[in-house]
Specification:
Elements: E1 4-13, H1 21-41, E2 50-54, E3 57-61, H2 68-89, E4 98-110, E5 113-115, H3 117-126, H4 129-136, E6 143-148, H5 149-155, E7 169-175, E8 180-187, H6 201-209, H7 241-255, H8 259-274, H9 290-304, H10 310-316, H11 327-334, H12 348-354, H13 377-392
Length: about 400
């Protein structure tokens, strides 16, 4: 009996079983077409793949001479493009979002194809909570890709064909009930160019936000001592399931030491709770529940020994009046979000490098690093910060 090493690929359609049969049939047909086209565009002959179809996707064993860069990068990029076109052209009922897992390991031929460790590990990756959560936390994305550590070392670390380690995030796939604990590498493709402003993000923020007025409509806001308790909106209900997924992803990112990802996901959790996609507005703070703020604060506080989180920030900002023209800049200064030397907001990579150097409650920043090349981000960030910190004044903690 022979033992061979092969690359294996698995794809699963998100929420497939919840669709009616007529939609499932259409999705299967479209997915089969897209896998054919993506593999052809990548120079991979799918006819040579040994495929084991399932209702919501398939698992495939690839030939021994597969080109790794073409598989890991080109195939996934082309598949993401095809999914984007399909999802823009079809109703939500037949929208296709994919979990994609890839691995390389040993197999042995059997009566029904192949068996062996490669397919076992692939199954664990494809069905892992971390991959499911990553896709759910990217509602505008089309797929989430997860590589095993062995394939990552072979395909990504050589840095050929446009693959770079920085495109992947190390995560842990932890299934204690199955005795499986391994590192894997997550990639969320982003399609399309991002509009870039003239000048650096820091310069644009400085020019656009220095004299930012209070969010419209302008109205007096009471300080904590003045706020009548009866006027406060009661928001004690738990977060929705979708928001809960963001919170779980924040915890996963913090456990892995991925502070920038946890920071971004914290912002996305607040936006999802308020039904926003860009930034919060002045009245959106009332939509942020006590339970959500507490869950996020618990995650950040636990990861930092109480140094970071909403409670630490609220204590730092105690007494600051959140009205007028310049409260945003005062928050930036008090929480260490801008340079003490020249008063400019720190670019996110520089912020990350300095965040460990003092006891300031720097996280969460409510920034979204993925949007900071967009001309809209300075206003989005400023109004999100003001709305959230105004809400924190009435947060029951």
């Amino acid at each position: 009996m022979s033992l061979v090493e092969r690359c294996v690929v698995g794809v699963d359609v998100e929420k497939f079983s919840a669709r009616p049969a007529r939609h499932q049939l259409r999705i299967q047909k479209e997915l089969d077409r897209m896998l054919d086209e993506a593999s052809a565009q990548a120079g991979l002959d799918r006819a040579g793949w040994v495929r084991q179809p399932a209702g919501d996707g398939e698992v495939a064993v690839l030939p021994p001479d597969v080109e790794l860069v073409a598989l890991v990068r080109t195939f996934v990029r082309e598949l993401d493009t095809l999914l984007t076109d399909h999802n823009e052209d079809h109703d939500p009922g037949v929208r296709i979002r994919l979990r994609v897992a890839m691995h390389t390991d040993v197999l042995t031929p059997g009566a029904f194809g192949y068996a062996g460790p490669a397919l076992v590990v692939l199954s664990r990756l494809l069905d892992s909570a971390v991959l499911r959560r990553a896709l759910r936390a990217a509602p505008d994305g089309n797929l989430a890709q997860l590589l095993s550590a062995s394939l990552y070392r072979r395909a990504v670390l050589p840095e050929l064909g446009g693959l770079r380690p920085g495109q992947f995030e190390e995560v842990r796939v932890d299934l204690p009930e199955k005795g499986f604990r391994e590192s894997a590498y997550l990639h969320l493709p982003h399609r399309g160019p991002v509009a870039r402003p003239v000048g650096s993000p820091v310069a644009v923020l400085t020019s656009l936000v220095r004299d930012l007025p209070a969010p419209a409509p302008a109205r007096p806001v009471a300080t904590p001592a003045e706020a009548p308790r009866a006027a406060r909106v009661e928001v004690a209900e738990p977060p929705s399931p979708r928001v809960r997924e963001f919170v779980d992803c924040v915890r996963d990112a913090l456990a892995a030491g991925k502070l920038a990802r946890a920071d971004r996901l914290t912002t996305l959790a607040l936006l999802a709770q308020a039904g926003r996609t860009g930034g919060l507005r002045g009245t959106d703070g009332a939509l942020l529940t006590d339970a959500l703020l507490t869950d996020l604060d618990d995650a950040w506080s636990a990861a930092s020994g109480g140094r970071w989180g909403f409670r630490a920030q609220r204590a730092r900002l105690d007494g600051l009046v959140l009205t007028g023209r310049r409260p945003f800049w005062e928050i930036c200064s008090a929480l260490g979000w801008r340079s003490a030397e020249d008063g400019t907001v720190l670019a996110y990579p520089e912020f990350e490098r300095t965040a460990e150097n003092d006891d300031l409650p720097r996280y969460p920043t409510l920034r979204n690093p993925a949007r900071e090349d967009d001309p809209q981000w300075p206003d989005e960030w400023a109004t999100t910060v003001l709305a959230t910190h105004l809400r924190l004044r009435s947060w029951e903690r």
